[in-house]
Every structure is written in C-alpha cells, then in structure tokens.
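Hey all, sorry for the wall of text incoming. These are the two entities for the joint prediction.
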Amino acid sequence: MIKTDALIIGAGPVGLFAVFELGILGLNAHVVDNLDKAGGQCIELYPDKPIYDIPAVPECTGESLTKNLLKQIEPFKTSFHFNQRVNSVIKNKDHWIVETSDNIKFETPNVIIAGGVGSFEPRKPPIQGIEKFESKNLFYSVKNKNNFANQNVCIFGGGDSALDWAVELSKIAKKIYLVHRRDDFRAAQHTVDQMKEIAKTGKIEILTNFQPKNFLGTDVIEKVVIENNDKTIKEINVDSVLAFFGLKMELGPILNWGLNLDKKTIVVNTENFETNEKGIFAIGDICTYPGKLKLILCGFHEAALAAQECFRRARPDEKYVFRFTTSSSDIHKRLGVK
Amino acid sequence: MPKVTYIEFNGQEHTVEVEKGLSIMEGAVQNNVPGIDADCGGSCACATCHVYVDEDWKDKLPEQSDAEKDMLDFAFETKANSRLSCQIFLEDETLNGIVVRLPEKQG
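and here's what came out:
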C-alpha cells in the first residue's frame, strides 16, 4: 500500500499542473493514467495541433505544452503509474483506498480526478458478442509477438499500429490478412511501401474496401467474415485476430464511485472543486459547474483551488498560509531554487 | 438561419435552426440532439460526431479533408455517405434543410 498526500487520476495538462500546485504546498502526489505516457488528449489526439489560449503562451502544441508542464513539475519527482486505470475508490474513515487495474493500492486523503472525457480504451469492431473471444484469440494490442508464430493472423486497421504489426508479424506468422475500409492508409508512407513489397511475396494479403461483418467460432474465432463496399462477402480462416481501430474515451469505473454526475461529467462546487464526496475532487474537462468552460486554462485554476483543500485534509494540524512563488523561501526550497 | 434535420437511429426526428457559421455537430450539441457525442469538441480528432448524410445532399457538401477521411476510419459502421459533422459548416443557405441520420452509436 502506497501512502500519498494525493492521488491524481489522469496525466493530462490539468493533472500535471495539479502536481505542481500540490507540490508548492509541500504535498506529494502519485499519478495514474491509462495511456503509456503523460499528456492525455493533448498527446493522444492532437500533439501537433496548435493551441492559442494558454495565458502568456501565444502559440504552442499539445506536445510542447505537455513537455513544459513535465519540466515545471520536475522538482517534485512525481511517481507516474501508466498503462493502468483506477478501478476502485473505497472510503476508509477519512481516507480513500484506491486500487488500479495493475493491483497497485494507494491510501490517501485526497483523490483528484483529472480524467478529461474518461480513459482511453481500444475501440472494438462493431460486432455483437465478441467479448467471449477477447484475450483468447481476439486482441487489441500485441503483448508477445511470438504467440503469433506460424499462425494465420487477420489484422484490421489502416494506421501505424496495424501496418507496423502486419510487417513485423509477417516475419514469423504463416500468413497475414490486412483488412482496411479504404484504399488509403494513415500509416507512415515507408511502412505502407514495406507492406506492399511483402504483399508481392504472398506473406501479406491486403484486403481494402472491406469491413468486418462477423466473427465465427464457438470458443475462439475460427473464421472472419468481411464485407466489401459492393456488399460482396469474403470469409477468411484465422488463428487469431488483431483489431486496431484506435482509441475511444470512456468514463468507465468512475461511474460506480457514488459521485453526482451530469451526463458524462462530475458535479463539483466552485470553491474547491470537491465532489459530493469529501476528499474526492474533479478538475478539468471532467468536472461541471454553472459556467464551466472546457478550457485548459480553467482546469489550471481548478487545480490551484483544489490543492488548497487537499492541504487542509492532508495536514489537518498545520496552518495553511497563502504564499507567492516569487517570494516564499519555503516554495523556493521545494522547487530547488538556489 | 439554416435548418438541419437530425434523425436518430430509432427514427426520432429533430429539426432545428442552426446559426450560420456553426457546424452540424455544434447545431446538435447546442440544441441537445442526442446521438452526437463530439468528445474532442470539434477538432476532427475523435470520430464521435459521425453522421450519414442523405443522398440528396451529398453533392452539396464540402470535400472531405484527408484528416476527416483518416478519422472516419475510427467511426462505427461507416458507409459511403458517412461524414464527421464537426467538419460540415453551415456557412450560408446552401445546406438549408439538410437531413443527417445518426448511427446506432458513436465510437
């Protein structure tokens, strides 16, 4: 069990800035995120797209914003727990016991939900009842490529993940079927060229303008049925299926924590952004209140105010004193300013 | 103001007036039309504002950008008339009366 002053769910810009606001108050924090790196939507959805409304930063990208926020919180040596989501938040007197999908447990007085529009989950093929095949021979990522040796593998998708794995697995699999809904691929051009080159040997069969129609099999998928744009049907015998339809955002387990919700957002007060549960805060895009704007800059403000209440809960015996970063020697010490 | 008719998957129709300059996605969100999620808020980055545009209107629409085509790869059950509604703007009266049908689900 890891004890921490605050557990932050979501490593997007607002979650990262919450680390800073807690840090200058002398509070430590752990951050959990379902992606494999910090940045949230800024990195996953629009790393290269420009952002023009960060105060005093006339123009930046999602990527550069994330990089600068990480630099800003460097002094606090924060622990990040990536590739996992928070599954449960359970009350234990004044504290919360938080458990992740990788079974890491935290005890903390403060849980800050900075989860954007939810956690990123793989988007599944639009076929009913496929859950029974998941983790048997239907996968949304490759954990161990050797599992696909000598297999007939059907890969869905037209982006980098789909094509990278088509090329990579073609070296060990019996045959790869690459199914995509149109002729153009989103993947890097050199990977597209590479795949087309391998296709000439017959190791990869490229099936474009096809979409998944059905997966047949009792225990595992034995046959994939795909449909062409002109409605012709094709069946492929497979040993395993990889579907790379990108990621979507889902609120997920947050729905079960007893928090007051309004559509897909969590209701908070505007004094400290606490939810209906003491010690659970929601900041950034995931929270709502009268006048709420889904702007990064509003999330920063929410992080600053939530951190004050986190201090009171984590240090009930200490007096809270408001200080400026410009002049406070305590803050300078915490930031490592000489 | 241009009128837009949104038809939900269950057949429920909503005809609303949308201010010029807004997108079909924004028209749905501002008028509480269910079935368009628009998770990313209109930056063509999530494919949760997917609609099917009625055949009569297909030719009047602006061309699809590469970004929209790429993003549509992620939409649920795309068809030849699939579009992302955040990329269709109601600049003038050209699209007045347009009918879009919503998919069974977004993403």
